[in-house]
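agent: user wants the structure for ABC transporter permease from Cellulosimicrobium composti. delegating to structure tool.
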Amino acid sequence: MTSTTTVTDALPDAVVTSRGPRYRQQLQQILAFAGLVVIFAFFSVASPYFLDWANIKGILLATAVTGIMALGATFVIATGGIDLSVGTGMTLCAVMTGVFLTNLGLPLAVGVLGGIAAGALLGLVNGLNVSFLGIPPFIATLATMMVAQGLSLVISGTKPIYFSDVAGFGQIALGELVPGLPNAVLIFFVAAVVAGVLLSKSLVGRYALSIGSNEEATAISGIDVRRWKVVVYTVAGVFTGLAGVVMASRLNSAQPGLGLGYELEAIAAVVIGGTSLRGGKATILGTVIGALIMATLTNGLRIMSIPQEWQKVAVGVVILLAVYTDILRRGKDA
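agent: tool returned. relaying tokens verbatim.
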């Protein structure tokens, strides 16, 4: 399988850019954007409240959290792996931020960095389990997902941690450096730019794509595959930690019961955008579009008063369609 990103000459030939797969990936992004437009237009007609700016900001806020997690998941999926721990990992990072800022009384910047570092640590654990212990990514990250969920409840005492006494924390997500646009959205866009640069211009992204394209050939070329997998999972954990901080700031609390289900939305956003579950091809722009689709769909169904159980059905159908589309795309690239 070929990669859609140009890589260095040191990488195996299996990851040299190919016009055919690149064209199909660009087509996938165009189709995803067209799908977003159709969904947006449908809900605009179906509900007079959908286009209200307050509702649009709600969609963007929801996109920010899911999208930041999806950015990290893009790197993992590019290697041909999977990360099921991003949802509960996000919650654990929010809880740890609460512990640092409220229980320990650390300065705001230190507490925020501590929450992000907690995410990096989770990613590091995932990477070590996958690379050095040889545990399949699905099982390794499933175990981390359960551990993170349990630790969130244990550390918080099963109770929310509120940030009411932490000056400035709520402004991280809900403040407006740009009038009318929540800071959480700006953080997401900046994170997307950083992720795009990492994927296309740095060794992390290039080696992630190389590993996903042909792991054996990558190893033969002299690249330490195990070490770079650890790096990739750690980078993904940083994005998970950032999502946890943004979520905690948005709610002004760390809710230990949240998290489950977010990983599916994040993975769906990645696949909808054109990143292959088989690895070797990834796109940050597509992930951003996919995150917008997931948030818009969920918001639209909610604003139309569709019962929550049917909302889950709709999201599940979207995930199935995304995976099936990826299967068709892989068949064409074969």
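agent: one observation worth passing along. The chain is about 70% helix and 0% strand.
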